[in-house]
Amino acid sequence: MASVARGLREAWPAGAFVVLVVPLCLFFSVVVPFGNVPDEPAHIGRAQSLLHGQLIGRRGLVMLPGGTAPVLLDGVDVDPAAMQAALVLGAIPPHVSRAALQRARRMGWSGKRTFVEIGTIAGYWPAFYVPAAVALEAARLFGASPFEALFAGRIANALCYGLLGTAALLLARRARFLLFCTLSVPMAFSLGASFNEDGLLIAATVLAAALLTRVSDQADPGPAYPDIRRGRWSYRAAALLLANVVLAKPPYLPLLFMLLVPLPPPTAWAPLRPVLLSRLAVVALIALCVLAWTAVMVLHTSTPAPRPAYHPGPLWPGNPGRVFTGTDPMAQIRVLAADPLRIVTLPVFTILHDIWITRQTVGILGWLDVLLPPWLYRAWFVAIPAALLADLLHPSEAGASATPQPPRLPDTLLLLVGAFGCFLGVYLSQYLIWTNVGLARVEGPQGRYLLPIVPMIAFALPRLRLRGGAGLSAALGIAPTLVAALQLVALPIMLVMVYYVT
Q1: Taking Cα atoms as reference points, which of 184, 495, 231, 261 lies closest to residue 370?
Q2: N or C: which end of the chain has fewer CB within 10 A?
Q3: In the structure, how many helices (H) and strands (E) does the chain have?
Q4: Which of these, 410, 389, 357, 412, lies nearest to 478 by C-alpha position?
């Protein structure tokens, strides 16, 4: 009976995800109008560009509305038909008219490649665009119109999101409930049901954390130690996943701290030094790849985001009368260098004064213009802490030989420092490339950027030893499952009302 109960506890989050979240993800992929996901038209262009071997975008001259001369911007060379079909349906307000649907359906492939500006997305690492790109091309070869091919690309991403999430929850040996929440909040799976790479990036981060929970952290440096025998495949797969994540979004580079734990205990430092050095070598190699890709992106594609002419903000240390016509990363570095404490204070000040960030993390859909029902936010704000506590109380089911022990205090501290580093990286990158020069707050961060950090926090959770902890953990785990069941009923109705009922 004990083994049956243990098996049910282990399969519960994965089963709930398959039954309650994957169908909703597929529903979103076919019901949400194309273009009504953040930056989706640009992501469609990035996926298409891979079909012609364009692994990274390029700069091109574009005439902006009202401009007098062309401006050099980031973009890709694609048949613009699919992007145009998405733009037709991505208008604000979000209600989709019959006329717009007919225009999108009538569009055909032009058969020509044209330079299209898509901003910084032109330089994104291509790995997470492969499923959508393959599906788009397969649909086109079978005679699908651009409008029909977009369904194929979205469904391919939704299926990949479901597969990655299910694998993560089946493989995880701890922190299952918090990982379940990360995958099940509407913001995450709505991205997974679109061309936006963030959905697959979130799922890949969850899977990497789940794989690393299978790596033993016993103090004995014998055959059970992770990098030597047990956990070798899990470690390598997690390293590959995290490499793609940080190549796609360099601000998440501190996620690589997960590859350094468990740190050798003091009693085993000498014999385990080669293991730690091998892990440091893996992290260093990935970091070098990220630096190389970032350098190629900066040299080959990156351009300032154009802005109407403006004077710098109050933090600018130079001439306040200077006029800027776009973002300027080098000028922003001067702002940070004038007071290095701003590296911390600017992100912290911004998030503390952002009243929408928690709701965005759970889910504000569309172009941040479609709010969920208020009760659903409240439900997730209860369910997520319940999931965290459930994971803290989750017992070791069969001893250290079968279930890896939770992180020791040095491991937890290192991982939490890494999570804070990711937060700073996300906000500082937005300050450098998206915020007008000298402003006293960061512009551009959204709640979805915080979701890849949650698996690292889940991986860092220690275990609280409490009498009756197993039963309390199971009881608390009901909360996120119940919320997922409620949103399975509520969100389809909401989507139809928002987009199709006028």
Answers
A1: 495
A2: N
A3: 19, 7
A4: 389
Name residue 129's amino acid. Y
As beta bridge partners, residue 59 has 74
What tens digit of pLDDT does each residue of 6-56 get? 556 678 899 999 999 999 999 999 999 999 999 999 999 999 999 988 999
Distance between CA atoms of residues 349 and 264, nearest Å = 36
Name the token pair of 197: 């790479």
Cis bond before residue 93 (omega within 30° of 0):
yes
> What predicted TM-score, i.e. pTM, was given to this entire model?
0.94
Q: Are 70 and 63 in contact (CB under 8 A)?
A: yes
Q: What is the pLDDT of residues 217-267, one digit of tens each?
A: 443 444 444 443 456 889 999 999 999 999 999 999 999 999 998 887 776
Distances (CA, A) of 18 to 275, 281, 321: 37, 37, 58
> Rounded CA gap, 490 and 27, in Å?
12
> Which of 34, 129, 123, 110 has its CA nearest to residue 75?
123
- Give the Å distances, CA to CA, from 390 to 79, 171, 179, 294: 49, 18, 12, 39
Q: Is 410 exposed, middle or buried (0-12, 13-18, 19+ CB in 10 A)?
A: middle
Closest by CA to 368, choosing from 480, 449, 248, is: 449
Written as six digits, the tokens of 359 are 């709701």
For residue 89, the Cα-to-chain-centroid distance in whole angstroms is 24
The candidate with the shortest Cα–Cα distance to 423, out of 212, 278, 249, 302, is: 249
